[in-house]
Amino acid sequence: MTSSELWTRETADRYDAEETEMSSAAVLGPTLDFLAGLAGNGRALEFAIGTGRVGVPLRERGVPVAGIELSEDMAAVLRRKIDADALPVTIGDMATTRVPGEFTLVYLVYNTISNLLTQDEQVECFRNAARHLAPGGRFVIELGVPPLRFLPPGQVAVPFDVSERHLGFDTFDLAEQLLVSHHFTREDGDGAAEVRYRRGSSRHRYAWPAELDLMARIAGLERERRVADWDGTPFTEHATKHVSVWRKPD
């Protein structure tokens, strides 16, 4: 049993429309270049593949891709884009679910490891990645750096998006290392003057880069590289996210 929240059909059906920027060539191009380079001539496995934002175009580049996805509704949206023979998806959680064969690349994008709400489950996710990797294979995670520097004493919320159509902010439980992302999204009604806002939220467990390195060591993986984005910008104390690569020893 996983602590991850299950994405509903309603969320799955509107996911792609709300993530058009993340699906743009400017975002996907460097992501696909990075992942395809690590996959080489081998197979790739995406944990929490969702609607296939990354997995489908990576497969179209010629990389054999398989996926694990907890939400059947998210997987159903992916299946509208590509058939199961071209990109098989196993329904299950990324901490324990196994799929056949070995892979040269296992990857998790867009903060998805934070959907596992306990440290133990995140450790098991690393172990599950290691079980699927061939010797010399890589495990890649894209994850935001917790923005705790923006929390002055007494403040518990940090905004991450303030735009015309969306207001987003995170609230933090520092003792439990948990955050809740809150979203207020504008939805125009039928009338020209009618404006409505849809409220949503999701829970996440944030983890520091060094904590992930320790999880990797527990799973028998060695850190190979850490950069600030898919373009390879050096990771510094000012980075707001990181892309980290761990290698399974030969």
Radius of gyration: 18 Å
Question: What CATH architecture of the largest domain do you see?
Answer: 3-Layer(aba) Sandwich
Domain tally:
2
- Number of E strands: 11
Give the overall shape: globular
**Top CATH class of the largest domain:** Alpha Beta
β-strand percent reads: 25-35%
The end-to-end distance, rounded to whole angstroms, is 32 Å
Structural class: alpha/beta
CATH topology of the largest domain: Rossmann fold
Give helix % range: 25-40%
Separate helix tally: 6
Strand order, biggest sheet? 3-2-1-4-5-11-10
Would you identify the regions where 5 or more consecutive residues have pLDDT less than 50?
A: none
Average predicted confidence as pLDDT: 93
Order of helices and strands: HHEHEHEEHEEEEEHEE
The CATH homologous superfamily of the largest domain: Vaccinia Virus protein VP39
User: Main β-sheet: number of strands, strand sense, barrel status?
Assistant: 7 strands, mixed
Describe the structure.
This protein is α/β, with parallel strands linked by helices and 250 residues long. The protein folds into 2 domains: 177 residues, Rossmann fold (3-Layer(aba) Sandwich), CATH 3.40.50; 57 residues. The protein is 25% helix and 32% strand. It contains 6 helices and 11 strands. The strands form 2 sheets. The chain has a 7-stranded mixed beta sheet. The chain is globular. The chain starts with 8 loop residues before the first helix and ends with a strand.
